[in-house]
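Appendix C reproduces, verbatim, an entry submitted by the partner laboratory led by Prof. M.T., so that reviewers can inspect both the input and the predicted structure.
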Amino acid sequence: MRSVTRVLVAAVALAMVAVGAVGAPAQAADSIVIWVDPGHGQAIKELLPDGYKGTPVEIVEKGADVLRADLAGAGRREAPDAIWGDLAWTGELAGAGLLAPVTLKKKTRTLFRDNVLTGSVVQGEQYGLPVQISNLALITNTKLVPTQPRTFAELSALALKLAKKRKNVTVPFALAQGEGTSPWTTYPMFSGLGGYLFARSSDGSLNLGDVGLASKELRANAGQIDDWNASGLISSKMTAEEARNAFATGQSPFWLAGPENLQDLLDLTFSYRIGALPPMKAGIKPVPLLTVQGFMITSFADKHGVLDMASELVGTYFAREKAQQKLAAVSGLFPANTKAADDVTTGGGRVRAIGNAGVNGVTMPNAPQAAVLWGPYAEAWTASTKGKNATPAKKAFRAAQKTAMAGLKSGDVPTG
């Protein structure tokens, strides 16, 4: 228990170094407690078999689905000093006073891309250490497409030509749509037309007053979505499983996939390329969304008297190449540390290739208000790509913008 004397702590330290009792109701003073999912918990124990610089590190394993909620309901005694999770949580948790800023030295910051670091910035403060990244990349069947298209117009024309002339090609572009309310799969094409979710302020924080579901650029380029729909290049009816099967069976020359699809890629019987989507409009680079996971320091670390040590552990040790490689490997994802990422060999270099395709990506917004955008976005994309009776994309996304702004103004943010 945190209230015991330092003498008792010293007596039991050897028994709890780096291992800890999973689910223990309380922890000893002068130890650092980290809540983490089971897979990463084991990796941390292997990295810190003797604790950190003489300080015991206690691992409490929790499912990712309950960790955030448990932190919100934790009392001082049982609360952790650091947690592992999705850095999109930082806006909610920092706003609730549950997080402390993460201090990254200037030299350490150079190991991470700015677009990755800003994903856990709240009101100009860094509240998370990125460790692993997931994004989508373009997968091309090189048997069907020997030379990679330089523009999306070339890609589209070639895909439609193959679908017309080859009986076995039935899906021009294997793009999963219509599932859930996240723009995850379609965002690379949306961003390539100038659309965005939230803009960012000069300090890196999200600008919740600047929503780009119907940005000026998107409105000007929305006719492209209408053309994709009319030509049959994409369809809102296609599910993720259908898209995967179409590419795997050679029925589609192009597919958007991520590191979670590594086994699917390894199972393919034909050669393929991994890269970024080519540009749809001059001067606009199509970029994917990035999900970023890593560590956050809780505000309880200060109350437990271990804030300085927890900050050093998270902001320095876990930022290093070795730790990042080991922790990212648990999930088979791309390390956030750029030096660690350069040396990734997972999947014979496939995970590295996917990650490199997303280097200019946009992190999932870390404000809870982002939940207001998902429904309108999904409805607009579905309505504009559902075939014969589709709504013009410009009209659909203008309606989405209006709905989202009304939700933000009302403050009625969906939960779950």
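Residues 393-410 form the longest helix (18 residues). Additional entries are available on request from the coordinating office.
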